[in-house]
Amino acid sequence: MVAGLAFGSEIKRFGRSRLTRAAIVVIMLLPLVYGALYLWAFWDPFGHVNKMPVALVNADKGTEVKGQKINAGAEVEKSLADDKSLDWHIVSPAEAAKGVKDGTYYFMLELPENFSSAIASPMSGKPEKAQLRAVYNDANNYVSSTIGQSAMAQVLNAVSTRISGQAVNQVLSMVISAGAGIEQAADGAGKLADGLDTADDGVKQLATGLTTAKTGSAQLRTGSQQLSDGINQATDPILALTRALSGLGGNTAQLQQSATALADAADKAGVFIKTQDTMLAGIDAAIKQLTASPDPAARQAAEGLRAVRAQLAQASVPATAKQQVVAASSAAATLTEQLRTPGSPLATMLGQVGATGTDLTAKITQLRSGAAQLAAGNATLDDGITQLSDGAAKLSDGTGQLRTGSRELATKLHEGAGSVPKWTDQQASQVAETIGGPVQLDASHENRAPNFGSGMAPFFLTLALFFGALVLWMVFRPLQNRAIAAEVLAIRVVMASYLPAAAIGLCQAVILYCVVRFALGLEVAHPIAMVFFMMGVSLAFIAFTQAVNALVGPAVGRVLIMALLMLQLVSSGGMYPVETTARPFQVLHKYDPMTYGVNGLRQLVLGGIDHRLWVAIGVMLFIWVASITVSCLSARRNRLWNLDRLMPAIKI
């Protein structure tokens, strides 16, 4: 019984021959398949993507803008070739398509014919985006397509930054050139403002003078009209007289006719007077005779004649008039005689008077017309001065606004000219590069993994330790039947199988650590703590797999542990974030033993220790205690043999 409980009792079975002893060594080295071989194979795959053959097709024909030749495709081709981030092969479109199809090239990048023209399109006023055409073939290798897409994103960003920097540089050159023009315009606007200041002062003086002139022109208009009216009133009688004199002296024949007519009229008036006197004398004689007649009728007739004579006497020409008629007749005869005699004094005088009257009439008429024209001209002048004064007032307002506006324009142009940068070509290029790529990522990594292998080491190491534990119980017996039959304490039965396996498990952990740490060059933040943690994980996994085998039997246990291994691979979150997996695996993640092994190793390898390490240690300790407990209970249960144990349904 004591021999069965000895530490080496289970090991002694493998010490009988060289082959069995070699099996123990192989068991110790098996975790290296997962923990070292896989890490070695995928230690830094992203650091060797420059060995991936990739096709580059440059079909760009270039372009010319404003006399400047642009060949952006050649620049991109040279930039990619110099970068050497991938193994670029410059080939034709047909070769590239064939190579991607048959796997010669993992993918291809094509620069189209209009690449340069699209790059230069913003300067032509018809902007369009330049296109880069990438063709992948996932049948060649899906990961290579993923790497290619990531590389293309970087290439696109680099090309966009460079091209946009060139475009911005050209725009800045135009802006800087425009700045000099704006400054000249500002100087011109300042001179214009100074001129408008002088012009505005002159216009205001003009407006003031025109206001005074407007008042004077109104007075002049009124005075000239009054003068015209006064001249007309004063010259009306004179004009009538001069016109009469002009008519008198200018037509002596008419005067002769008038004098003759006057003489005839005087003669007739004399005849009339004589006839009247004769009639009165006859009436007087008739009255006398009738008065002398005794006949009453005669007397009555005489009375009637007296009444007629009285009326006739009343209507008769007075003596003065008779004298005037006689004088007029004499004067008319004399006048007629003088007018009929050429060269007489009267005819000469009348000719002079007529000529003087005509001339005087013309002068007076000219005076009246001049006064009227003067009044009309002054009225027109007054209207014009009024309009000119109003216009000058508006002009004064306008020049004032123009003066203010020009001064503001000059100020703003000077401000604008001052705002335009005055950069050198080097400064403009630096600014263009900054604007072309305005955002630069300043990434920092806490607990940075130097390569892919370092980041995946916690997962592969945990997987290797679990695999080592699985293989151990394929060789070792989880519980020794002889000790159980001897009714040894359950804990001693469990330890009799566990301790030899644990010793080999510790060797597995130490060997795995040393190979990964020193042979592969894994950088570890906490090396001592890591080796002890790996030993603890190995002990917990060995206890866990022993408990499963002891609980359900070695045959079923091995199948169950392998199934558990598959579940732990996808639910531990060792390769991809667990949030990217299916929902059932997210639930299993919290109960997966490998989860805590991966979390603890991540913090020990990369640094940044926090509560997750202590949780991992606590979980491993809990798994060890729970597993030993389950193994002990299984050992006590196995003291009782039944038909299922004697004839198991499954044998492996």
From TrEMBL:
<dbReference type="InterPro" id="IPR051328">
    <property type="entry name" value="T7SS_ABC-Transporter"/>
</dbReference>
<keyword id="KW-0472">Membrane</keyword>
<dbReference type="InterPro" id="IPR017500">
    <property type="entry name" value="Phage_infect_YhgE_N"/>
</dbReference>
<feature type="transmembrane region" description="Helical">
    <location>
        <begin position="559"/>
        <end position="578"/>
    </location>
</feature>
<feature type="transmembrane region" description="Helical">
    <location>
        <begin position="528"/>
        <end position="552"/>
    </location>
</feature>
<feature type="domain" description="ABC-2 type transporter transmembrane">
    <location>
        <begin position="429"/>
        <end position="631"/>
    </location>
</feature>
<dbReference type="Pfam" id="PF12698">
    <property type="entry name" value="ABC2_membrane_3"/>
</dbReference>
<feature type="transmembrane region" description="Helical">
    <location>
        <begin position="613"/>
        <end position="635"/>
    </location>
</feature>
<feature type="transmembrane region" description="Helical">
    <location>
        <begin position="497"/>
        <end position="522"/>
    </location>
</feature>
<keyword id="KW-0812">Transmembrane</keyword>
<keyword id="KW-1133">Transmembrane helix</keyword>
<dbReference type="InterPro" id="IPR013525">
    <property type="entry name" value="ABC2_TM"/>
</dbReference>
<dbReference type="InterPro" id="IPR023908">
    <property type="entry name" value="xxxLxxG_rpt"/>
</dbReference>
<dbReference type="InterPro" id="IPR017501">
    <property type="entry name" value="Phage_infect_YhgE_C"/>
</dbReference>
<feature type="transmembrane region" description="Helical">
    <location>
        <begin position="22"/>
        <end position="43"/>
    </location>
</feature>
<protein>
    <recommendedName>
        <fullName>ABC-2 type transporter transmembrane domain-containing protein</fullName>
    </recommendedName>
</protein>
<feature type="domain" description="ABC-2 type transporter transmembrane">
    <location>
        <begin position="24"/>
        <end position="165"/>
    </location>
</feature>
<feature type="transmembrane region" description="Helical">
    <location>
        <begin position="456"/>
        <end position="476"/>
    </location>
</feature>
